[in-house]
């Protein structure tokens, strides 16, 4: 039973950074998922897959794992790469892209 500790990234439907501040602890699947033949749903008998814990800091999540004897793996969050661009860059002399209109 190995746990993953990570900071979730924002979804494609978000413009802000809601639900990305807390660190998340969830467990690696112990059993593979199975396809139910009648309806085609995927299911698993592993109840640990349903557990997702949120912590305010990475240190709190690590302390929780060590306190309960859970093996863990920490995935560091990479800062988002911001591309600075301005409207004036569309008309720059050294523009690399061709005009499309």
From TrEMBL:
Query: Sorted alphabetically, which InterPro entries does this protein's record hold?
Result: NADH_UbQ_FeS_4_mit-like, NDUFS4-like_sf
User: What is the species listed in this Swiss-Prot or TrEMBL entry?
Assistant: Pseudolabrys taiwanensis
A GO cellular component annotated for this chain's UniProt record is:
membrane
What lineage does the source organism belong to? Bacteria, Pseudomonadati, Pseudomonadota, Alphaproteobacteria, Hyphomicrobiales
Where does it live in the cell? Membrane
**Keyword hit for Transport:** yes
Q: Which UniProt keywords apply?
A: Electron transport, Membrane, Respiratory chain, Transit peptide, Transport
Q: Which Pfam families match?
A: NDUS4
Q: What is this protein called?
A: ETC complex I subunit
Annotated GO biological process: electron transport chain
């Amino acid at each position: 039973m190995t746990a993953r500790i990570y900071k979730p990234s924002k979804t494609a439907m978000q413009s802000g950074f809601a639900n990305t501040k807390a660190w998340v602890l969830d467990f690696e699947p112990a059993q593979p998922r199975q396809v139910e033949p009648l309806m085609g749903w995927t299911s698993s008998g592993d109840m640990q897959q349903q557990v997702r814990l949120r912590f305010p800091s990475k240190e709190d999540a690590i302390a929780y794992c060590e306190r309960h004897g859970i093996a863990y793996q920490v995935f560091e969050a990479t800062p988002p790469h911001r591309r600075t661009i301005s409207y004036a860059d569309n008309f720059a002399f050294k523009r690399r892209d061709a005009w499309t209109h």
